Amino acid sequence: MSWVHVFxxxxxxxxxxxxxxxxxxxxxxxxxxxxxEFIEVVxxxxxVVPGSEEERLVEARLRKxxxxxxxxxxxxxRISAELNAYVGLIEEDPTLRASRIHLLVTATGLGRFSxxxxxxxIREQLGTPCxxxxxxxxxxxxxxxxxxxxxxxxxxxxxxTRAKEEGFNVxxxxxxxxxxxSSFLYVLATLYDVDLVYYIHETFRKVVTLPVxxxxxxxELAKKILCIFGTRxxxxxxxxxxxxxxxxxxxxxxxxxxxxxxxWIKYLLKKKFVEGIKVVDDTVQIxxxxxxxxxxxEVEVKGRQLMIVKRDEKTVDIYEVE
Length: 322
Fold this sequence. Notes:
Structural class: alpha/beta
Strand order of the largest sheet: 3-2-1-4-5-6
Distance between the termini: 43 Å
Largest sheet: 6 strands, mixed
CATH topology of the largest domain: Rossmann fold
């Protein structure tokens, strides 16, 4: 069976090279002009505001200095935590080698640069097709966390679904990047029947595979959320059960004492609870047992937008959106 691997990608391999150069400089080694400039630019990249013009300029300078990192990665792939995990995995079991690799990177100059470096090395050194996917505003700060997380899960789920439809097994390499986001991707793996999840254990420095348990959202909780919000994006605090606030399912909207569903929760509700609707050979197949009464499901069939509503346990209404 062929495999598609999806990596979360951090910037450690770039920072490792930078740190190595600084240590050489401290020990008395004479660095080249390019190496000194690389240190300067990486330090600048860590300080600039994401999405700013300054960041764009710093990223452009980084790309001109990419050979500093490429040369070291070509001589030792394991400088990259992501590749350390992947190479360790396929050394233990060559049948897990990827036919294609997808890299999920932050929307920062340093993140994009790190992803591009890995893409080149994976293609050149491993001979594996590889694509970089920049997740909008991922890495921009806590105020963008919900938005970025929803986009991360959306991108990952599309890659997983497409690979599954093409007959591939799917593996997630969660070694790189931010740990909270990796945790949510593990949850996504359990919802989307991912075949393998692995990472380099921080203490043992060995490849660890995680059990992929079959999980699902609690239908009663989902029903409660959908019944409260319905088609509304915002509800007043007076209508909201304490449970939804306590579990972090909703977030306060400004200072208006109203709440909205967190984007990644909304994403899971829309994506997972359409199991009762499948489109096969341009025909809509509906299993009402897997639908929630009163909730609107949207489906596209041959360019036609359909809305499907479960009225009761026996009746499903279908509307075509003009």
